[in-house]
Specification:
Layout: H1 2-6, H2 10-20, E1 53-60, E2 70-79, E3 85-96, E4 99-113, E5 119-133, E6 152-166, E7 170-176, H3 186-189, E8 197-204, E9 206-209, E10 212-223, E11 229-238, E12 242-249, E13 253-263, E14 266-275, E15 286-294, E16 304-307, E17 312-315
Antiparallel strand pairs: 1-2, 1-15, 2-3, 3-4, 4-5, 5-6, 6-7, 7-8, 8-10, 9-10, 10-11, 11-12, 12-13, 13-14, 14-15, 16-17
Length: 322
Amino acid sequence: MILKTCMKSGLTLFTLLLGCTMGFGQLEPQYTQYMYNIGSFNPAYAGTVENPDISALYRAQWIDIPGAPRTLRLGLNLPWANEKNGMGFNVISDQLGPTSQTFVNAAYSFQINVSQYTRLSFGVNAGGALFNIDFSKGEFEDPEPLINNQDLNEFYPTVGAGLFLYDDNWYLGASVPNFITGSASDEIASLINDKIQLTAIGGYIFEMSDQLKFKPAFLAHMVEGLPLQFNLSANFLFSDVFTAGVGYRVNNSLSGLAGFQISSAVFVGYSYDYNTNNLAQYNQGSHELILKFYLGAGDGADREKPDRRKGKPKQVDSPRFF
């Protein structure tokens, strides 16, 4: 009943959207293809890859609901030649109704060996977010709860940190994308979730055969006072070229995922979410597209690298499965 009433009003629709995304501000944007997008929320992932890569992701959520979230992310991952350090850069644009935020940050990481096969990466990031609310983007019956119909622009800083423990076949990570709370004005703080968020991620790659790999993975978002957001996925990689899998966001949506390694330097992935909650009757699902470009992959340099576990060279012109 509440949902049906909310759908009849521009203002209450916006309020509904804010509630369903569990707060707009410092809560990280929602991704279905998080397994290809780790650098957006964990700075320790920077520099843990073989080659520099550029990622571009676009997410259109809840098709057919006016003002529903739209997210665009551009990311750069730069491993250093010493194989001990790395840097990352992120620009994320997140839109919801009359509000928008643009996050910009830079990350630095360094890695240490904790065993013969396992490495631990420490990462930090710093940047900021520009929050904008523009009431010309929509019609509202009663803007009083939304800071009296004021158009606002405000910048606030962000500082985060993360850990990423990984091997050739598995990984675990934890991060806090932003430690700084209380920096936004009272007007903006009334609209954003000004609390620290903890993010955890993990996955394991099972080599079923020379041509088939299976990777279950998870992503969890934890924020004080809000329900745990938990994501599960299972992907199969065929011949290091084609990926297919499913995902489940607990009490929220079911997803289908597919990806194609167009060449050693280009990957494209797509996912579709179908809501399993009450929102399913009001929208046509969510679409997400990701493009990854691996700089220097397949150029003939360092095409073989020792497989530490099997004691034989392996091809590395096909990018890692995480």
